[in-house]
Amino acid sequence: MQHVESDVSTSADWPSELPADKPTEPGLDITRALFGRKWLIILFTGVGLGLGHLHFSKQPPTFASYSKIMVQKSMAHLPVDYVDAARKDDPIDNHIYLMTQPAILESAIERGGLKELRSLSHVTNPAGVIAKGLRANRSVMTKDVIELSYFGGDRHDCRKILEAVVDAYKLWLSDTQRNNATDALRLISEARDKLDRDLKEYQTKLLDFQERSSLLFVDGRGINTFDRTLEDIESRRRTASFERQQLQTHLETIQSGLERGTSREALLLVANTSDKTEKSEVNPYMNKITELVIEKERMSKQVGASHPSVKNIEAAIDSLRRNFFQENATTGVARRDLLDVYIESLRERIRAFDRELQKLDEQFKATQVDAKRIASEQLEQTHLLSEGEQRKKLFDLVVEKLQAVDLAKNQGVLNANVTQQPTPGVQVGPDFAKYLGLGGAAGFLVAISLSFLLEVADKSFRNPDEITKQLGLPVIGHIPELEVGRDARIVRDGVVDRSLSTHHRPRSRMAEAYRAVRAALFFGTRGQGNRVIQITSADPGDGKSTLAANLAVAIATSGKKCLLVDADLRRPRVHALFGLENTVGVSSVVNDGLDVPDAVQQSSIANLDIMTVGPRVENPAELLLSPRFTELVAVLRERYDFVLFDTPPVLAVTDPAAVAAHVDGVVLVVRITKRSRPHGKRACETLDLIGARVLGVVVNGVDGRTPDYAGGYGSSYGANPYRYGGSRDGGYSDAYFTESGSTR
Fold this sequence. Notes:
Blueprint: H1 30-35, H2 38-57, E1 62-73, H3 80-88, H4 92-98, H5 102-112, H6 126-133, E2 134-138, E3 145-152, H7 155-212, E4 216-218, E5 221-223, H8 225-260, H9 264-274, H10 282-303, H11 308-330, H12 338-408, E6 414-420, E7 426-429, H13 432-457, H14 464-471, E8 475-480, H15 501-504, H16 509-524, E9 531-537, H17 544-557, E10 562-566, H18 574-578, H19 586-592, H20 596-599, E11 601-602, E12 608-611, H21 620-624, H22 627-639, E13 642-646, H23 655-660, E14 665-671, H24 676-689, E15 694-702
Parallel strand pairs: 8-15, 9-13, 9-14, 10-12, 10-13, 14-15
Antiparallel strand pairs: 1-3, 1-6, 1-7, 2-3, 4-5, 11-12
Helix pairs in contact: 2-13, 5-6, 5-7, 7-12, 8-9, 8-12, 9-10, 10-11, 16-17
């Protein structure tokens, strides 16, 4: 009977390309961990509540007495400065701690006769028992009030014990303040006397230092006179060095001009304008010739270089130059050059500055030795003055404290007033709500922890979206668990195996699930011609042979010409499913050269042919890699609309890799088990490594109790639509073959 493909949910279709996102490891599903195991949370929470109630029923009653003490400071007769300092000092926190210490508790036991009380008469350490039940805290209403409470097992003893503790604290406070004031006054007086002696010794030491020191003392401080001398010498050195550098630069400028061929008159002009301190005989001559040169340049620009006026100026310049050199000849230095004289004078002045700098350096070094000798005395003086200032400040501080203690020695700095007398004991425990709440909370936390541990340990797939994210593949079908009810007993004939629901029970939910996979294949191959599909799985027993057989029947009943090839050369099962002989098949065509039509068998189902594996071979993997197998696939592709190859599991043997190279697509079967997630990822990685195109995943063994898949339809995934625990198809063992390669 034909079925309309449009009735199948489109959720079984796959995209033309795989998801671009890289598969990621799923995080902890908190919602599933909590709500998927609600029974665990309810159970452990109930157990915790029961244990809390049991523990509460075994607790003895607890009573409490309460009291309040106000601790105030008396500062009426103290100066304002000491009042402010005393307010900053807050000893109440220390007193809260001391109330629970043996010094006060043992006094309370002795003075109050607490050893005779019924609750303390049988204990060896009554102070420890009282400290354990006593609580002292600062009041939240005012910081000067201490709130006391005592918790015990006897109503009347609680009040008596608290009264004794309050009285012992007041007595301790009075005695301590009186003794502390006397001791403080004595200690501070001794410190003052010692500091007074130290100051006198210091004055003697300072006078002795001044007598033997070489320093010049002004207003009590010594001055090193050699430091000022060094500063004066250094100032003179800097001035002389600067002037020498100027002369050296001037000399180098003139020498550089001579090397470049600059006229000597121009260099004399530079010397005349640069050297303001030297009144040279060159100056009158250069002043005159400079005026004539400037006038010549001006006239040349106005009337031209050949004008008579310009010629007259040139004649005047030549006459002035001849006269100047004749005058110099009469002085006794006939051929003396003024520029050379000027250069020689510059060099002599530089040598004079060098001699002056050398003398200053010698003087500086000699003075520096004396300055360093006296510097140690300056350092000793600094230490002495600093020591004196510190001792004086310390002495003044001790005198100030002594005056303050003397004013306060006869006054009570702290006064303890009981604002609330110890109350009669009232029952305060045990707290039923507290024990019940702690028990319930503990049970709830244990349940939550177990739920999270179980969730982390669960390596199965939870829903289709998780399969897509983890494997990077679409889910093209869900196959329910094999039915064992009335429908499973419906068999059309005794030839075809009853697991072929598409043949025996075409209206069942199982058959509809297989037709959903068929619809996905039709959709994926629409308009692309014939299709060669490989059916494989991650592990043995995932149901890939049953899926291949049912899918082949579903394709054939739709009117397509289909061929089912059993390529599982190690554990063939297709011939058993259709009740056929396994005398010829794939091995016969590839190894023996049998014609393809002779190796194909017709099944009892229209449009469906079967090619079994044929005789057993010793090298299955090599057979599938042979060129004859490639030719076989090409021939089958031309003769049939659809060719389905049933191959071994990917993680068991390498045979699927040989077949995947020749097919158009691979369908991966995954059965929901405890290890389905890591095994599925490994299978996809293996297929991706060999370059196979995986069309999608078919989930086998879906729990029939899941309402989302009742009748083969559903629009949402529940908290956990996938459950494991069903039977495995085909009876495969975990070890698919022995180490030698032979089948079991």
